[in-house]
Amino acid sequence: MAKRWSLGGYRRGTLAVSAAVCLALLPAGCTLPVPQSEGSSAAPLALLPATMPGDSPLAEAGRAGGKTEDPPAAASPVPDSSAGPTAPPVTAYFVLVGDGGRNGVRFGCNDSLVGYPWPGGTGDARLRAAVGALLGDGRQPGSAYNALGASRLKFLSGSFDGTTVTVYLSGTLNQGGSCDLPRIEAQLTQTALEAVGAIRADIYINGESLADYLKLK
Fold first, then answer.
1. Better-scored residue on pLDDT, 87 or 127
2. Are 121 and 84 a contacting pair, CB within 8 Å?
3. Contact (Cβ atoms closer than 8 angstroms) between residue 151 and residue 171
4. Does residue 106 contact residue 112 with C-beta atoms inside 8 Å?
5. Contact 32, 22 (CB under 8 A)
6. What are the C-alpha distances in Å from 165 to residues 17, 32, 34, 93, 175?
């Protein structure tokens, strides 16, 4: 009677033959077929490479020549995140006298109020940096005019409650005429608002509100 072959017997026979061949060819590396049960859809497992870590062709050539390969260069260190990027600039507002709103917002004596980028800071330092750009150092961008340039004012403190920015200044306010009064108010107010994203600004000079202080000028 002819022998009957089962699928399981055929697989076991094939696996045994493959294992014998692999043992003979072991130095060259070999991949054994992984038996699966009928109906299984699992992917076959990947066998480890025949060469061990460190037995790369370059390493083998180095040992044959009596040389040792230099270790790979170390990766560049990750930049320290605590250093932080360069602080974004703030915006300080200056006046283009007689510009009539051609290059900015028209106000006062037919002037334009124009914002200019200025070296800034982060957090609470942004308000100090923005207002400080206007206070008594005489600097002004290009042909713009700083109505506070002749004053001797100092930034004391500032705060922001999410809606209103409050700024306290001290010192002497020197203005060059009646047209400087709306310029001073516009420069200080808009610069403080922009620095923190407020919708209202309360500014005090020597303890008095800016509006009351300017009335005395």
1. 127
2. no
3. yes
4. yes
5. yes
6. 85, 75, 73, 16, 24
